[in-house]
TrEMBL record:
Keywords: ATP-binding, Folate biosynthesis, Kinase, Nucleotide-binding, Transferase. One of its GO terms (molecular function) is 2-amino-4-hydroxy-6-hydroxymethyldihydropteridine diphosphokinase activity. This is 2-amino-4-hydroxy-6-hydroxymethyldihydropteridine diphosphokinase. The gene is folK. Residues 85-96 form the 7,8-dihydro-6-hydroxymethylpterin-pyrophosphokinase domain. GO terms for biological process: folic acid biosynthetic process. Pathway: Cofactor biosynthesis; tetrahydrofolate biosynthesis; 2-amino-4-hydroxy-6-hydroxymethyl-7,8-dihydropteridine diphosphate from 7,8-dihydroneopterin triphosphate: step 4/4. It comes from Corynebacterium uropygiale.
Length: 161
C-alpha cells in the first residue's frame, strides 16, 4: 500500500522533528520519496510561528487504520498536544492519500477520511507533493490543476526555508 503523508511542525526543533519522521520510514525501508522542507505561514489560527512542512511517499504493509495509529504514535512521541484546533503543534503526521494497486482508497469514516478532506485546498500539502510526484492525482484531478486553482498568495507563501 502506498501512502502520501504530510508532515509539519511549528514548535521546538521543527526540522529535527520532521527528520525523525523521515528517518522512521527510511529505517524501515518504506520511504520512497521525501520533498524538500518548506516554510509556510500558519493556516486557520494565524497567531503562531510559521510551520515547516514536507510531504512523504511511503510504501507500507500496514492497513489504513494501522498506518493512522503509527502516525499518531509518531505525533505522541513528539509530545503532540491538541489544545486548540489549528493551533501550534510539535508534529503533525497527516495521511493525505492511500493507494492500493494504483487505485486511490476512498473512505468517509470519521476516524480516517480518505483522501484527506482539506488536501485539495492546502498549498503546503500540494506543493511539496507535486515536487515528489508531479503527475499525482487527488480524486481524479491532477494536483498541478489543484495548485493552479489556489489563491496566488497561498501558493507564493510556501517557500523553501
Amino acid at each position: 500500500m502506498e501512502a502520501v503523508l504530510s508532515i509539519g511542525s511549528n514548535m521546538a526543533d521543527r526540522q529535527a522533528l520532521l527528520d525523525g519522521v523521515i528517518e522512521h520510514f527510511a529505517e524501515a525501508e518504506q520511504l520512497r520519496a521525501a520533498s524538500r522542507t518548506y516554510a509556510t505561514p500558519p493556516w486557520g489560527v494565524t497567531d503562531q510561528e510559521d510551520f515547516l512542512n514536507a510531504t512523504l511517499l511511503v510504501e507500507v504493509p500496514d492497513e489504513p487504520l494501522e498506518l493512522l495509529r503509527r502516525c499518531q504514535a509518531l505525533e505522541n512521541a513528539a509530545h503532540r498536544v491538541r489544545e486548540r484546533r489549528w493551533g501550534p503543534r510539535t508534529l503533525d503526521v497527516d495521511i493525505i492519500q492511500i493507494r492500493r494497486d494504483g487505485h486511490e482508497l476512498l473512505s468517509e469514516d470519521p476516524t480516517l477520511t480518505l483522501p484527506h478532506p482539506w488536501a485539495h485546498a492546502r498549498a503546503f500539502v500540494l506543493i511539496p507533493w507535486a515536487e515528489i510526484e508531479p503527475e499525482a492525482q487527488l480524486r481524479g484531478q491532477p494536483i498541478a490543476e489543484l495548485i493552479a486553482a489556489l489563491p496566488d498568495d497561498d501558493v507564493q507563501a510556501v517557500t523553501p526555508p
